[in-house]
Design brief:
The protein is an alpha/beta fold and 300 residues long. The chain contains eleven helices and ten strands. Bound molecules: phosphoenolpyruvate (PEP) and manganese (II) ion (MN).
């Protein structure tokens, strides 16, 4: 006699609630063009820079440091989503101007956060990539507004979002008409308190399986600890991420925000050399590392 187990009907497979983000109708990986690179291709893309844009000469100094280290893109927040209203909130447009100046001098593209729909036009007039922070990952009116822009969007995973919710947030942007979305795993809230968040590296595998969008890892915000950034950056490369976002500050001890998780320039440059060596083992490359003397000549 058949057991009740063998009689159990197979539950129907529920189709995903997102469509444009899904790999089902778009089996090939999406490439996000950015200057001479594409995010999502063989080049392992590095976005690096301070948590916040600060007063001179911090932004320019750090931009040069990450350029020499081989970063493709500089990061820095001008509009900062801080937990406390009394913490440094960012330099707003003045910060965007400093980023633009750093781009002019280094040739690096800019990624910076936009916190509110009313600021999209302003931030988009300076930035090459618009970042949606973890706290805004389900701000659906902001996501809809970003769907109307033609700039690439770096979408961070929400603090408490499942991968399905994360991919649905991306769907809002794609459904609005902007196909250029880069996902970013930056850790999620769990019961574990030994790190600032819990880096969910397995989400990279799930995202790659379910979606064609590129995905990068931010080990800085995921852990809140500078000494965890290098090992987890290598793990992100090994697991198949398309790049990294790393906080770097020219003087981490005096940073106005997130100094404890920021690499100093020497640590960043050392990590980049290691990643460049490791990348070919995982079908990737980092082609931006030139000897410092070549950079000096380029800017002579
Ligand atoms: C940031 O990248 O500046 C930031 C605030 O990160 P998150 O939104 O991931 O906390
Ligand atoms: Mn930060």
């Amino acid at each position: 006699m058949a057991t009740s187990c063998s009689q159990a009907p197979t539950p129907p497979v529920k189709p995903p609630s997102y469509k444009l983000t899904s790999r089902v109708n778009h089996p090939e990986d999406s490439l996000i063009p950015l200057g001479s690179y594409a995010i999502g291709g063989p080049e392992f893309i590095i976005m690096a820079g301070p948590c916040s844009v600060e007063a001179d000469p911090q932004m320019l100094g750090t931009a040069w440091d990450v350029k020499v280290g081989g970063a493709h893109i500089i990061r820095g927040g001008a509009f900062k989503p801080r937990s406390s209203p009394y913490s440094f909130q960012g330099l707003a447009e003045e910060g965007l101007k400093k980023l633009a100046h750093a781009r002019e001098l280094t040739g690096l593209a800019i990624v910076t956060e936009v916190m509110d729909s009313s600021e999209v036009d302003l931030v988009a007039s300076y930035a090459d990539i618009l970042q949606v922070g973890a706290r805004n990952a389900q701000n659906f009116s902001l996501l809809k507004r970003l769907g109307l822009t033609n700039k690439p969007i770096l979408l961070k995973r929400g603090l408490m979002n499942t991968v399905e919710e994360f991919l649905n947030s991306a769907e809002y942007i794609l459904a609005g008409g902007n196909p250029h979305v880069i996902l970013c795993e930056r850790g999620i809230r769990t019961f574990e308190t030994s790190t600032r968040n819990t880096l969910d590296l397995s989400s990279i595998l799930t995202i790659k399986e379910k979606s064609h969008l590129p995905v990068i890892v931010d080990p800085s915000h995921a852990t809140g600890r500078a000494n965890y950034v290098a090992p987890l950056s290598k793990a992100a490369l090994a697991v198949g991420a398309d790049g990294l976002m790393i906080e770097v500050h020219c003087d981490p001890a005096n940073a106005l925000c997130d100094g404890e998780e920021s690499l100093n320039p020497g640590q960043f440059q050392e990590l980049m050399l290691q990643l460049k060596d490791l990348a070919p083992h995982f079908g990737r490359r980092i082609s931006t590392l030139s000897p410092p003397s070549a950079l000096l000549a380029e800017n002579a």
